[in-house]
Amino acid sequence: MKNSLHTRTWVNLLIVASLFSCKKSIDQEQGKQLLPSQVAKSTGGSGSLVVGDDMIWSDEFNTAGGMNPDNWIFSNRNNSSWAKFLTALPEYATSDGNDMVLKMDTALIPGDNIPYHTGGIESRNKFYFTYGMVEVRMKFDEATGAWPAFWMMPQTYPYGGWPGCGEIDVAEHFNTSNVTLQNVFFRWYNTSHGASYTKNAYNRYVVVWTPTAIRFFVNGKFTTAVNRPANSTWETWPYDQPCYIILNQSGGAGSTSTVDRTKLPFHNRVDYVRVYQSPSYLFNAGFEYSADLTPWAAWQPAGTVSVVNTDANSGTKAIRLQGGECSAEQLITGLAPNTTYTFGGYGKKSIASAGASIGVKSYGGTAVGASITGTAYQQHSVTFTTGASNTSAIVYIYKNSSSGTVYADDFYLSEQ
Q1: pLDDT at 240 over 60
Q2: Is residue 29 annotated as part of the catalytic site, yes or no?
Q3: How many whole angstroms separate alpha carbon 17 and alpha carbon 3?
Q4: Alpha carbons 131 and 277: distance in angstroms, whole number
Q5: What distances in angstroms separate CA 342 from CA 38, 118, 180, 297, 381, one per listed residue?
Q6: List 122, 172, 288, 329, catalytic entry
Q7: Which of 29, 122, 135, 167 is catalytic?
Q8: I need a surface site. Which of 119, 294, 355, 358 has the fewest CB within 10 A?
Q9: Phi, psi of 327 (to 5 degrees)
């Protein structure tokens, strides 16, 4: 069960050794068709299956009123700090037609005499999944006593209760802090990272979860990662169980016990929640997810890398490399050692003299690449075999000259 930072610090001491993007409708999000194999990977219930590039479930909160009962239930009140004042009434979790608005206030509710009332919803028993990329765009009030969060917990508890069961916090904020926490919890230990974000604004928080790593991003930038230890057991890596999603606006307990009542009510406004899955753990391969590259990273010493709404091979978007030397890379985790894979995609360049290639590196062998040769889209691919202990690789598209513009789309990674 989720607790306050005070409790988390106590757990640590037990082992001292140790783009902003505009609101979109579902229709605007449609791009590549969802593959049947990707649909099958969803282990959840009757969530809103939508069409998109690897998207298996989302809630855009575009319909005014209460939460969608096919997707969410109210989070239950209990003695945990975050849950002490949860209130299962629509006014504490309602859509205004753009956002799911979760609220904390001091309203007087007959028969429920507590100092605060807070809102929380979760997808438990409605939608849950194992491995994928989850994205949320949200804006929260910052004040002493406020505790908004977006996090995940296991659907079942084969490893016992908290913290041994595991917990993944994608975005958690306390009071008026200048950072948003991104945490994971497991038996007797947790890791916590304070990530920079834009205050008093909407921010995009992303987690990429595979069998061997959990990687976090804020506003398209990689922030921190937790890697599966060698020879791990459930005590050091419980993150192989289906998880559900929790959104809440808590406060008034734990590290937020002192509340600035002059700033109430507090709100956590959630624009959307989107879940993607890819059998190969290559995400945003067609650049249809959003306006930025996440989870790709741009290297731009002399040129620029961007997602554009032109020159797509399929769907509506492609990646563009323009100007001088630049590249886009994605770290793929969750691969199998001593296994052969093919990485490929479609590329073109505006003039024949522009130099560009796609390739793979850091997989346990020598980097391999294939040149992009034509001014019309052509398919290119490379084959590589992971090393004896390698479970990751970096895939890339690279522009090595100052002339011309390069476009690419529809990358793929498959096991041979």
Answers
A1: yes
A2: no
A3: 22
A4: 7
A5: 18, 49, 37, 21, 7
A6: 172
A7: 167
A8: 355
A9: -160, 165
